[in-house]
Design goal:
The structure holds two protein chains of two kinds. Chain A is an alpha/beta fold. Chain A contains ten helices and 21 strands. Chain A has two domains: 275 residues, no CATH class; 48 residues, no CATH class. In chain A, strands 1, 4, 5, 7, 8, 10, 12, 14, 16, 18 and 20 form an eleven-stranded mixed sheet that branches. In chain A, strands 3-2-6-9-11-13-15-17-19-21 form a ten-stranded mixed sheet, covered by helices on one side. Chain B has one domain: 3-Layer(aba) Sandwich (Rossmann fold), CATH 3.40.50.300. In chain B, strands 6-9-10-3-11-12 form a six-stranded mixed sheet, sandwiched between helices. A four-stranded antiparallel sheet of chain B has the order 2-1-4-5. A two-stranded antiparallel sheet of chain B has the order 7-8. Classes of the chains: A alpha/beta, B alpha/beta.
Chain lengths: 436, 247
């Protein structure tokens, strides 16, 4: 393994080599975006623990390793693809291999009128104007160097455009496979979702990697929800045991729009999710639900931000985690209610179950309330399995191991029960019952 | 079936049981009565293997085997059942899942085939009818939001499903109205046969009007101070525990 001393220089060098071969290199506005991102990344540097946003998550190891960006799909691991597909889910499918569109494995026929789903690289040529007016429109890089990095190396991803009043009749499953012939690949999938007025859609992003493969995903999903649109978004992270998975979901919500976002972080060496919604219209609804299963030698960090900028918004952040071995979890839930955002309602809940004395969780609610007529609640708990419940089950003949599994599952069952899409619910139940 | 010899038990270094001797034979119903703090619940808990109870002297034999080293689940599989005084609420686990899992775990150790969903449903519904338990209770989380009476019925339902050799009932009558007590007692009486034994732990003799014991023991200060037949319970009700404790 190659190790390097200065990650910023390393990424700059890779960028300098890559920039002339990146898609859309003839689009001035895009080149400008990339260069701005490059500047921001260079100025901010690679995150370290003195930066508040990265206090509990150490990315030194990530920075010390050399990765090369994926430029071609290479071999597709069809076995991995088969396990990534969700049984009994009737859906449209896009497969990305190391962040690149794999057309032959994608299934998009029969899309309803008014809906465009294609790769971002295609959209740069076929739908340039929509991409130009939305891509990176309100994104800030401050405190988010990986968002800057994603924009620098932006090569491919998924582009969805839902015209006014359109309804996506089946969910879209975006399958990300980290696979191929090489080790130390980094990929930068970028998804741009534009939901027109009164449109409705469900998207599933899932991430998979070969068991021990080392790779680095830096993902960014940008969502623009126009008036009265509704989007349900799932993120299922089943990365390899050696993988670094850094992902951001940023949504901008216009009035009366509704976002329901689920995040299930199930495996990976280091996972960091930045999930953000900016409620820029009135009467918006935004619900973040998540579950993290942290095992030994794993680190999972969820940073959430719900930014109420306008009145009458409703939001929730409900995250639960089970941590084992020497696993380390971080939950940082920020809720901002601006002075103008009167009549906002917001609820935050983070519950953690520690299964071992060496497991660790840092949970931090951050409520910044500037309006006076609001309803805000928050709660955080860290606990262990209930001895009384454990004894009760065992006293009925259930083995200790099974009793523990039952209680662990019970701890997060409400998050699973809340999942709207039945095949996902069944998959999660099956996976989690077997593994916790 | 159950032999307890000179049993001494401490809880957090405090002596609670101080030399219990008790012999329960197949088919017998024993009642242990005593005032609060006499050690009744400790006796129930030590039989089921709950943490926090330490045997400092004496022994407990069940079907010729020492109980002390057996895990709670192994005791349950060997045929010991405790109906808890305070059944535990477990949010997130449905009652039906719990009952089916328990029944099948016990069947497995008995070398019997596991029941499938259909067979289990037929079995559980018949028992529920006997106990006048509504179907919806199956699909609620274990004991969550159950009334006191519903929780106790749920305990007896588990007992009927698991068909133990020795059923211990810890203050099952507390908090029950007469109708519920009658329904539960009928359920228990239906389980009585020449092989199955019962140990009823109670403060009041009211329960013993419905489930008639063969033997009654009075527990005071961690010892059995008096044993007799059913008439002992009636005598106690008249004179109170103070007389016996003083004696």
């Amino acid at each position: 393994m190659t190790t390097i001393s200065d990650p910023v220089t390393q990424y700059q060098q890779v960028y300098d080599q890559a920039r002339t071969s990146l898609p859309g290199k003839d689009l001035n506005w895009l080149t400008k975006l990339r260069d701005q991102a490059y500047e921001s990344f260079a100025t901010q540097g690679f995150p370290h623990r003195k930066v508040e946003n990265w206090k509990y998550t150490n990315v030194n190891n990530l920075g010390q390793q050399a990765f090369t960006p994926a430029i071609a799909i290479g071999t597709v691991n069809t076995e991995l693809l088969a396990t990534a597909q969700i049984p009994d889910l009737d859906c449209y499918q896009i497969v990305l291999v190391n962040g690149l569109f794999a057309e032959q494995y994608s299934q998009l026929s029969g899309l309803p009128a008014g809906i465009i789903i294609t790769s971002l690289s295609n959209a740069l040529t076929d739908h340039t104007e929509i991409v130009r007016t939305h891509l990176n429109k309100q994104l800030t890089y401050q405190g988010q160097p990986f968002a800057a990095l994603n924009t620098m190396f932006l090569r491919d991803g998924v582009f969805c455009y839902f015209d006014n009043n359109s309804v996506l009749d089946k969910p879209l499953h975006i399958i990300h496979l980290a696979t191929g012939d090489r080790q130390n690949v980094m990929s930068f999938p970028r998804h741009l979702i534009v939901a027109g007025e009164h449109s409705q859609a469900t998207l599933i992003e899932s991430y998979h990697g070969d068991k021990d493969q080392l790779y680095f995903n830096d993902c960014l999903t940008e969502i623009h929800l126009h008036d009265h649109s509704q989007l349900t978004h799932y993120s299922l992270i089943e990365a390899s045991q050696a993988a670094y998975h850094i992902a951001a979901l940023h949504a901008w919500q216009q009035q009366h729009s509704r976002l329901q976002a689920y995040n299930f972080a199930l495996s990976g060496k280091l996972i960091r999710n930045d999930t953000r919604a900016y409620l820029i219209g009135t009467h918006t609804q935004c619900h973040f639900n998540g579950f993290y299963r942290v095992r030994s030698d794993q680190h999972i960090d969820n940073h959430l931000l719900t930014d109420h900028q306008q009145p009458h918004g409703t939001s929730t952040q409900t995250y639960k985690g089970i941590l084992d071995g020497n696993g380390h979890g971080v939950f940082n839930g920020t809720v901002i209610v601006a002075e103008d955002a009167q009549k906002s309602k917001t609820q935050q809940l983070n519950k953690n179950l520690l299964l071992s004395p060496t497991a660790q969780i840092n949970t931090k609610p951050e409520l910044q309330i500037f309006a006076d007529d609001v309803q805000c609640t928050h709660g955080a708990t860290v606990g262990q399995l209930d001895d009384k419940a454990l004894f009760y089950l065992r006293s009925r003949g259930i083995s200790e191991a099974m009793a523990r599994r039952i209680l662990n599952y019970a701890f997060m069952s409400d998050i699973i029960d809340n999942v709207e899409l039945e095949p996902i619910k069944i998959k999660l139940k099956r996976d989690l019952k077997g593994s916790i | 079936m159950l032999t307890i010899e000179n049993l001494h038990v401490t809880v957090e270094d405090k002596a609670i049981l101080r030399g219990i001797n008790l012999q329960i034979n197949p088919g017998e119903v024993h009642a242990i009565m005593g005032p609060n703090g006499s050690g009744k619940s400790t006796l129930a808990n030590i039989l089921t293997g709950r943490d926090g109870y330490n045997i400092t002297a004496g022994k407990i034999m069940f079907d010729g085997k020492p109980l002390a080293d057996m895990a709670p689940e192994d005791r349950a599989r060997a045929g010991i059942f405790l109906a808890l005084q305070y059944p535990v609420e477990i949010p997130g686990v449905t009652n039906i899942y719990f009952l089916k899992t328990a029944v099948n775990e016990i069947r497995k150790t008995q070398g019997l085939a596991e029941l499938d969903a259909m067979d289990f449903m037929t079995l559980v519904k018949a028992k529920m009818q006997q106990l006048k338990i509504k179907d919806e209770m199956l699909y609620r989380a274990i004991n969550e939001g159950f009334s006191g009476g519903e929780k106790k019925r749920n305990e007896i339902l588990q007992m009927m499903l698991l068909e133990p050799k020795l059923a211990i009932m810890d203050e099952t009558d507390s908090g029950l109205d007469i109708d519920a007590l009658q329904i539960i007692s009928e359920g228990v009486n239906a389980l009585r046969d020449s092989k199955r034994s019962f140990l009823l732990i109670t403060h009041y003799q009211r329960l013993l009007n419905y489930i008639v014991p063969d033997h009654v023991h009075v527990l005071a200060h961690g010892k059995i101070v008096k044993s007799g037949g059913r008439e002992l319970a009636e005598y106690l009700e008249k004179v109170g525990y103070e007389q016996i404790e003083a004696a």
